[in-house]
Specification:
Two copies of one chain form a homodimer. Chain A is α+β, with helices and mostly antiparallel strands. The first copy, chain A, is 52% helix and 16% strand. The longest helix of chain A has 26 residues, at 79-104. The first copy, chain A, binds a DNA duplex (30 and 30 nucleotides) through residues 3-4, 6-8, 10, 24-27, 42-46, 48-50, 53, 67-73.
Chain lengths: 112, 112
Amino acid sequence: MRGEELKGHLDAMLLAALEGGPRHGYAVIEALRQSTGGKLDLPTGTIYPALRRLEQAGLITGSWSVVAGRRRRDYELTPAGRQALSGRRADWRDFSAMVTAALEGNPWPSPA
Amino acid sequence: MRGEELKGHLDAMLLAALEGGPRHGYAVIEALRQSTGGKLDLPTGTIYPALRRLEQAGLITGSWSVVAGRRRRDYELTPAGRQALSGRRADWRDFSAMVTAALEGNPWPSPA
DNA sequence: AGCTTATAGATAGTGTCACTACATATAGCA
DNA sequence: TGCTATATGTAGTGACACTATCTATAAGCT
C-alpha cells in the first residue's frame, strides 16, 4: 500500500478502531490489520505520532497502565471523537463516491 | 474537499479524464468538475504540475496547438498510460474496500 | 546463558504532493 | 474601459505518512 494514498484517511480509521472500546497503540495496529484482512499493516512510526495528534486534538484521551510488566497507553474516544468519527465516515462516503465517479468518467468522448 | 485526502488518487483521475480522448489542462478541470457533479474543482496550480508529472512519467504525451488565438497543450494517454489507468483503477477498488472495511470495523468490542 | 520473537512505546528526519498565491496573456462582452 | 472566461505557468508552503532507529520487557527455544 503506497503511503501517500492514506493521507487524510488515517485519522478516521484510527477513530473507528477505538469505537469498540479503549485500545493501546499496538492493539490498534492489530485491530486494523484484522478488520482489513491484513491489507493495512501500519508501522509504529505512523501510529504513535498519529495517536498523539488525535489526543492533542481532543478526539481521544490516553492513560497509562501496566499489563504483564509492560507499560501501555490506552486510548479512548472522547465525545468530540465520536462526533468526529461520524463526520469522517460521512466525508469518506462523499470522497469515495467522488473518486469513483471521476474514475468512471464519461463513456463516450466529448472532445473539447 | 480537504487537500490531503486527494493524495495519491489524483493521477488516476487525471488519466481517467483523458480516457475519452485528448484534452488540455483547462478542459480536464472541467471534465472532472462535470463527472463529479461539481464536487471536484481543481485549482490550476494543482493540475498543470500534475500533468507535467504524468508526461514525464511517460503516461501521457502533450502537444501544443492554438485554438481561437489561445495556445493549448493537449494531452493524450500513451499505451503505458492506459495500462497505468487500469492498474490505478484496480488500486482504487482495493484501497476503498480496505478503508471501508476499516471504518466499519468491529461491531462488538474485543478488548485487548 | 544466549538468542529470537512478540509485545509496547518513542522520535528524528525524509519525501511526496496538493495546495495558495501570484503572474501572464488572449477573446468577448458590456 | 473593465470584467469575465479561457488558458498556462511557477514559487513556496504545509501536512503528514513514511523509514530508520532506539529502548525495554516477557516468553520461548536451544
